[in-house]
Amino acid sequence: MTHILREMWLLGRSRSAIWALLLLAVCASASVALGLASVARDRAVIDRMLAGQVAEEAALAAFVEDAGSGAYYGFQPTWDPPSDLAFAALGSRDIAPAVLRVRALALEGQIYENESSNPELALPGRFDLAFVAVYVAPLVLIALLHDLWSGEREAGRYHALAALPRARRRLWTSRVAVRLAGVLVALLLPFGIGALMAGTAPLRALGFAGLITLVCLLWTAIVLVVARLGVRSAVNAASLAAVWFALTLVAPAGVNLAINAGVPVPDGAALARENREYVHAGWDRPRDRTMRDFLKVYPQHEAGSAIPPTFHWKWYFAFQHLGDLHVAEQSQAYRDGIARRAEMGRIAGWVLPPAGLAQAMSAMAGTDVTAQLDYQMRIRAYHQRLREFYYDYLFSEKPFGPQELARVPRFDPAIGG
Length: 417
Known about the structure:
Blueprint: H1 2-13, H2 15-61, H3 67-73, E1 76-79, E2 99-102, H4 107-112, H5 119-122, H6 129-145, H7 150-154, H8 158-162, H9 167-198, H10 202-227, H11 233-262, H12 268-281, H13 287-297, H14 313-326, H15 328-351, H16 353-365, H17 369-396, H18 402-405
């Protein structure tokens, strides 16, 4: 304990070390505050949407006359609530929509036309605790540990210190432990406060704290390997800065470019456009052909499939669904491509541990690409239930009024249906 206290006293006398730790603590605190604010905004948007849904359904009930008008004018809310760890690793939540209101019309256009976001706003990236831990904390560790041995050698004290009994345990290990502990406190104290405010489950908070600790241990090991080489402090710092630049920026960017080039993905906007064009062309397509194609998918509605020569909702919703079927293969290829890219990214994370740990943080927080695709699949499952609910009324000619609106399926964020 005496050795630890001595190293803490020495660390406190180093202005540069104290300023580095304070800067890291400020960055961590700011990232937690921004993460909590982002999560609060998402929840506020969800609450406003659900509150507005009540008034919208009351207005719809005032004029709905049949199942077709209810399906056409009735927007239904879906939402992806942030997890109790989302504040620490925002992942894809800054660019992926957290809410989506859908109708019983063609779904592909509804999903993909909501994917676009301002690319200039996405350029700076996410300033969350995961970013601070993966990108900023290593620089502080480099500043604190790069001259662990070379600094003493340049000051002429190294040989005297090395001659002390059990110098490695009493001196060097204590010095490393105190500096590493300072970095961990600067990161974990703001995270702990944020976790309490967010109501994070204790085990999940401990798991995320463990990932932060792994990042710090990884970079401590890298710094000590370079610092032990015995060259000058300036050379150590420059070498470690190059290692940080390569492991956190250059190599992940290169791997990402290679994955994107190796796994082509259809353009979501082009897919939505193709879906819209096919649906719009349905007005000019032979009506009997439209109904035949629809009944191949829903043969159970054949008995009520007769339509008059004038407009009928059955025909309208039939070619809406055929628009989704027209781009079904492209849509599946899009999802498979995104999932394949994510899988290859996870594999690359084993070769590039900083990137792998960042991915693990997003996965634990439920904000990674996989979580985004899961939300889309829940929307698809719900949309199918919504369509088939209205199909039962349309093809059976059952009366549909305000009372039936109360029986419209509701979205469950856990399962989608």
